[in-house]
Design brief:
about 80 residues; alpha+beta; YaeB-like fold; 5-stranded mixed β-sheet; 3 helices
Length: about 80
């Protein structure tokens, strides 16, 4: 299986600033794994959009998979109450 490239929306860096550093390290490690397995166990496709979400602790990572271009685009990172709004 070919490895996907990871891309981030510019707003993701702003999202990560408000999260403690120890949690950011875990979140980024989880995101890196998406390059090899963009649909890991525990990921869920959101009903109303072509976006997936995975959990890392109390945080959610929302991302889009572009299978034709082999790209995983990270859209938003944050706590549950902040990412879905």
């Amino acid at each position: 299986m070919a490895s996907y490239s990871l891309r981030f929306k510019t707003s993701v860096s702003i999202d990560l600033r408000s999260i403690p550093k120890k949690d950011v390290k875990r979140i980024l490690a989880r995101i890196e794994k998406l390059a090899d397995y963009p649909r890991p166990s525990g990921c869920e496709k959101l009903v109303d959009r072509e976006i997936y979400r995975i959990r890392q602790g109390r945080y959610r990572i929302l991302y889009e998979i572009q299978d034709q271009a082999l790209i995983v685009l990270v859209i938003k990172v944050g706590s549950r109450d902040s990412v879905y709004g």
